[in-house]
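User: Hey, my collaborator sent me this sequence without any context and asked if I could get a structure. I don't really work with proteins. Can you help?
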Amino acid sequence: MSETNPAAAGASVDTAPHRYTAAVAAEIEARWQDFWDAEGTYAAPNPKGDLAGDPELAARPKKFIMDMFPYPSGAGLHVGHPLGYIATDVFARYQRMTGHNVLHTLGFDAFGLPAEQHAVATGEHPRVTTEAAITNMKSQLRRLGLGHDKRRSFATIDPDYYKWTQWIFLQIFNSWYDDEARKARPIAKLVAQFESGERAVPGGRSWNALSAVERADVLGEYRLAYASDAPVNWCPGLGTVLANEEVTADGRSERGNFPVFKAKLRQWNMRITAYADRLLEDLEELDWPEAIKLQQRNWIGRSEGARVDFPIDGENITVFTTRPDTLFGASYMVLAPEHPLVDKFTPAAWPEGTHDVWTGGHATPAEAVSAYRAQAASKSDVERQAEAKDKTGVFTGSYATNPVNGEKIPVFIADYVLMGYGTGAIMAVPAHDVRDFAFARAFELPITCVVEPTDDRGTDTSAWDDAFVSYDATIVNSTGAGVSLDGLGVVEAKARITEWLERSGIGEGTVNFRLRDWLFSRQRYWGEPFPIVYDEDGVAHALPESMLPLELPEVEDYSPRTFEPDDADTQPETPLSRNEEWVDVTLDLGDGPKKYRRETNTMPNWAGSCWYELRYLDPHNDRQMVDPEIERYWMGPGEDRPHGGVDLYVGGAEHAVLHLLYARFWSKVLYDLGYVSSAEPFHKLFNQGMIQAFVYRDSRGFAVPAAEVEERDGAFYYEGEQVSRLLGKMGKSLKNAVTPESICEEYGADTLRLYEMAMGPLDVSRPWDTRAVVGQFRLLQRLWRNIVDEATGEVTVVDAEPGEDTLRALHKAIDGVRQDLEGLRFNTAIAKVTELNNHLTKAGGPVSRSVAEALVLLVAPLAPHIAEELWRKLGHTDTVVHQDFPVADQAYVVDEAVTCVVQIKGKVKARLEVPPAISEEELEKVALADEKVVAALAGAPIRKVIVRAPKLVNIVV
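Assistant: No problem. I've predicted the 3D structure and written it out in structure-token form, which is a compact way to encode the shape of the chain:
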């Protein structure tokens, strides 16, 4: 909404030529930003070289402070983006002033789909647009006065950076997870075990008897990075594979609204599942929000249960269940449509007596299965897992045997079972599972109660409206085949049936995880090339480090090949595959020149952000990913950080799972292989909230420019038409974005910094209100006036000692601001600075130099430009950045006396002035001796005295 500029209002040039205005702020801020750059003010010294020559600096404790990687959007920043960057800058500045060697910098996560989409549409190389966006963002961030060590900045698209991304991929590719050692080990050690016979080769043959292809297949089952045929969301209309998040609920592409199908493609994967237990265990030692830890625990999804074999036609269908105690209630089975055994268990004709509702109206099981698979392929995993009202599925035509009672139970396929979770098969116990119950009702399947309901429904399921689900009930109807669970509780029944399954050789107790291996391939151009080539037999070979980085080649067309939208029987054609000179190469990998074919997929944009904290430490090292001594200094473990990691990592909660989980996985592999000392990347995590803005929409529901909306009598109008208003995100598409530049021009960057920090607690979302920005601008104007004469420009402070009231106000502010900055409570820190500044304004007269200097130092982390200017005006020649933060004198922090309320029968009878440190015993004596209290008691017997020193005494009579 349109505003006047309060920064330009006020005294005229004649009466206040040296007033702090937007123009003065702009000049000050630009000058000090130039000074910081020229002097290298924020350069953080490393333990090698820099610190070695400066013992005093070497003795300082370190602090590594990080923001989550920004993506350099062509649209640039709006005022919501810098919230976290300003917060970490304030904290980093405070840490420098409290004696820390601070590493704080910012790079750019620059690979990704938006730049590639722009390239497809315009033909302009994504590097050109990305680098232009980075240049623009750097300019915007510089204007905010962020104290970054610019020597350490980089972008993931820099070949010098992604050389090491590729190198890390190869370390993962050349590693396997040793379950006995509980760590990653080089694949060469596994090969040595196979060669020596220490470890049996799967299949029973000797290692030397295997061909190169067979050896590669065996090792592929162990490698932490491996290629396999994986189910993906294939969109022929776009010619690319889509992530689940890019597929709508009705199984179509979010972009273009094309049909999406399930297809199997050869893809690279990361075996993150090998680390599932460690990823869970080490969460406990991290200083993260509990909500984020819970999301990771749920995503990993550790569950204890049993694997059970159901015999069928001479083979077994294996299921994983967390409730083996309900085995006697399993009345049918369900396989994922993609399960590899479906075709094998699909007979030529329907068995006699097959229910019509089971066939889906098809003449044969094969027709039914084929049609249903096509239907399931058009749905995303998210849609398949949704609690749809109508359950769908089809009978395969085969029956399995329930091993505990010998009953024949029908085997169905249904889309609510996923191949990626468990074994891709479930035993259905409809009486005690909501989805199974709905499916059984829809397909007229038997429902047997085996867990006695604790409500009044009874065990006759024919009248049940839903399943009975309980983990605290008694098992019933569960006797047969040499085992009985009747009368047992759930825990005891699970233990007994698991022991019986293991003894009978038809199952075993086991642990399962919801976590799936990480699909690591993208059929796109704008990403890191894989440092992998294939020989004529299709065996994958790692490029040697000397051939890194493998840079992206030039291509004529950045778009993937598209097909008819409904043509599911197609395959992706990646942009890289079209550059045949790059794809087909002759290389000498140590055994003479041979012909190879390069991998034509690229890595996902997550790859570069999995390890960037390490490169910040040693960004110009061309021999190592990071020097071990430097890594140990900045990130190594300590008493309060048992797994090491970044001291503070700030970013949005939307990255709770994927980025954070992936980065933790890479860190653990590198730790296991001895490349780093930190087993975790980020020790402390803080999630900042979001700056929201009002979205105005016209009668068609279209967003209209917020800056042009007028408010009249509580209603809102755009070009004369009334519009609706709703609080939401800020963004260009919503036409409500406010740029940092516009606020800096009207008020200055220091005002913007103060306003964003003062809006509320950092971890809470808050609405942007341009009209409220002026409040922080006026704070800075009052601060300026307390030190500088607006008419002459002269400093007005005096060398006289401040009065006791001012000393108390000052030291209480110092004490409070220290605590608030340490705890990232920037809004309350600003409130305390404001209170002190107002005290000085109201006191009148010139401010004591000692108070003025302390006030400037308090402001320095929050509003660094004006602090630098005032510090220089106060006669100092060195930067305020490295000054010592003020320390409170506790004698002035503690009040000389506090008011204690004395209550009798809940009513206040006296108020006493007592010392703050008075003991409870002494306070009770003083209260009972008070004349007003004695009079109010009037000799009544006292039953109890409750003392809360120093502020409350409650007397019960």
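In plain terms: The longest helix spans residues 804-822. You can pass these tokens on to your collaborator as they are.
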